[in-house]
Backbone:
């Protein structure tokens, strides 16, 4: 076998030769002294792109989300989120460990919770024996729901609700770039409805590492302190920030190609009676589908034997993600392997 077609995640992309060249040539300095010119350039560019006063480079999406939640809360506070959200399912319980806060997950539809659902769960301020509701969190695109886009109309009404109760709004925009190219709504427009946003450079954009958080100047000043306390202060980090800058400058528009490939795969999967897929959820680069004739573990194993790597989506489902390193040939080969495994 020459190589695997790796659809486990869009995090598996490797830096291209041009990206590596930019990294090798990056000017660096000690970022803990704020003296890394490449990091400073990346943060300035990202803040402008996101329409926020300031931005901060952080090592990972998880750290980005957790810094934002920490800045917005005090120990014993509560954050409302959707029950399939990344912060609830895939961040190793860190809200409790790092910030002493709890999450209140609400079941959404395709990752979307409405103000009508959320409002009854906002704790009355007078109830001193309850946790204090502090933040509403939104994930866009929504990973576990299958890369679904949070409709801007719903974001606006959630914002109104949060403002009515004096709550902070945080956007896990790990894949906000995908939402933006799919809808033609700018990332700044999305971010304008939130106090903080965390977005990844190391997913579809193809950088090897790194995320950005953004907000107003006071928020980023606090975030800077919290990043250090979480062990995320880095030194000559321009060497990797250069890849993030390259990714932001060069790889946003092409995400649409990943979406087209995902749609193509989804249509084939939909026609195979051995799978169940909700085509309406295939809006960007993620496919979540249920194998009906094999268990998830058997399906993963058999696909791997043939050279195709998939991952687990929601419980009982497979996940495939298209990305920068998936060619048209890989899509054809994926279709062939799925057909062979699921005759
Ligand atoms: N998601 C990973 C896994 O953790 C599931 C993936 O392969 O999709 N927010 C969202 C919506 C994410 O999907 C992820 C990563 C993160 C945050 C965290 O980013 P990292 O892994 O860089 O800490």
Residues:
């Amino acid at each position: 076998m020459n190589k695997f077609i790796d659809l486990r995640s869009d995090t598996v992309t490797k830096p291209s030769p041009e990206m590596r060249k930019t990294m090798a040539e990056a000017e660096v300095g000690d970022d803990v002294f704020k003296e890394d010119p490449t990091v400073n350039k990346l943060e300035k560019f990202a803040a402008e792109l996101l329409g926020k006063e300031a931005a901060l480079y952080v090592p990972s999406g998880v750290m980005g989300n957790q810094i934002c939640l920490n800045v917005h809360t005090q120990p014993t506070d509560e954050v409302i989120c959707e029950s399939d959200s990344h912060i609830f399912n895939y961040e190793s319980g860190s809200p409790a460990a790092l910030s002493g806060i709890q999450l209140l997950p609400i079941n959404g539809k395709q990752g979307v919770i409405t103000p009508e659902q959320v409002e009854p769960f906002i704790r009355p301020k007078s109830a001193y024996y309850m946790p204090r509701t502090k933040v509403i969190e939104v994930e866009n695109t929504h990973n576990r729901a299958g890369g679904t886009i949070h409709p801007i109309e719903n974001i606006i009404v959630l914002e109104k609700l949060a403002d009515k109760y004096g709550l902070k709004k945080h956007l896990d925009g790990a894949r906000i770039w995908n939402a933006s190219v799919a809808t033609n709504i700018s990332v700044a427009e999305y971010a304008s409805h939130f106090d903080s946003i965390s977005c990844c450079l190391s997913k579809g954009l193809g950088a090897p590492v790194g995320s950005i958080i953004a907000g107003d100047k006071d928020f980023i000043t606090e975030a800077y302190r919290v990043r250090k306390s979480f062990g995320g202060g880095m030194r000559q980090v321009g060497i990797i920030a250069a890849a993030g800058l390259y990714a932001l400058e060069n790889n946003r528009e092409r995400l649409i190609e990943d979406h087209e490939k995902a749609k193509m795969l989804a249509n084939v999967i939909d026609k195979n009676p051995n799978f169940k897929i909700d085509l309406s959820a295939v809006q960007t680069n993620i496919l979540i589908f249920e194998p009906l004739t094999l268990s998830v573990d058997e399906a993963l194993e058999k696909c791997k034997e043939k050279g195709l790597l998939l991952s687990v989506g929601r419980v009982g489902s497979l996940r495939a993600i298209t990305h920068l390193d998936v060619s048209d040939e890989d899509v054809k080969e994926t279709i062939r392997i799925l057909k062979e495994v699921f005759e």
